[in-house]
């Protein structure tokens, strides 16, 4: 039976074994399982009940990983994207004034548009239309934004009147616990300890509990209460705001980030696997998963960077993703425990992930100022404007202007002119 299964999924041709695939699935899960706590915390900031947010995150991860494993037969791990969850909560809900139900509708429509792009030649057109400097600067800007969110969650910095940022009370128990947890997180990360983020969350929660900062009420309510909350979130998206410009600006911005982030992630991961010919299938699976996220009640999914851990552990086929998805399914039984994790245990992970995303700045050509200035605008405006969509808009508007000024109009595609014009129209309509 084992031999027949090996032949069916071409394990030997891929240079792997069933044991190796199973191990890679476990490695992938324990590398990315922190996303349950982190994503749920950010969704809760949008107003989604915390335990329901945990359910939404888990089921979204299960669906994404199983689809990639069964349909794509690839070891890519599909989970809610860091940065996209921040865009969902802090841009769409907090800045643009959408309800979380309306923001879920944005996720669904953006996912649908993503799917249309993925299943048509538009995917290739857009992949070549957007300069790499803009793609890289979006990742860097998102990294700074995540780090800012981490610092705010830790209460090390606080946002006061008129959104002015200042240093918090360093002597407060919350900040002390955060600093202790951050030190632990950095040590584990630099030492490359397996499941370092998971260990950080676990130990950080214990430290917070010792300081009396952990709310244990969800453990008393138990599993049944958590599942009851989810009924009000699954399929709760509402299209009441579809006639508003704000709604479609959110859709446009999210679609842009979804498409370009996944183009970069999937291309790199398949290159690592030497299976670049499967790009189209992987891209389509990711698009369908992102669309389903809105139904499940979560921010959209991406092929996460932690996929590299499973590939390094020997994952070469969809078995790796299937194992990871099934482990996410089993984690449903630990939902009450996830709900007690404090912000002080989440914040260090946001900061470290944000720091990792800054590495993309090395790919920007600093010798060409017409590339640097638009990229710089994206990088600084995403965190400073507290809006991912507005930050991206500044860079995309500046790019064709910079190229025209230096006489490099030939480097601008028609598609980029259209995208830049749409961002400019957005600002004009909002009186910016």
Automatic annotation (TrEMBL):
Which coarse location class applies to the principal site listed for this UniProt protein? Answer: membrane
Q: Does the keyword Glycoprotein apply?
A: no
Q: Where in the cell is it found?
A: Membrane
Pfam families recorded: Xan_ur_permease (PF00860)
Q: Do you know which InterPro entries this protein is assigned to?
A: Azg-like, NCS2
Member of which family?
Belongs to the nucleobase:cation symporter-2 (NCS2) (TC 2.A.40) family. Azg-like subfamily.
PANTHER family per the record? XANTHINE/URACIL PERMEASE C887.17-RELATED, XANTHINE_URACIL PERMEASE
Name of the featured protein? Permease
Task: List the source organism.
Answer: Lederbergia ruris
Taxon lineage: Bacteria, Bacillati, Bacillota, Bacilli, Bacillales
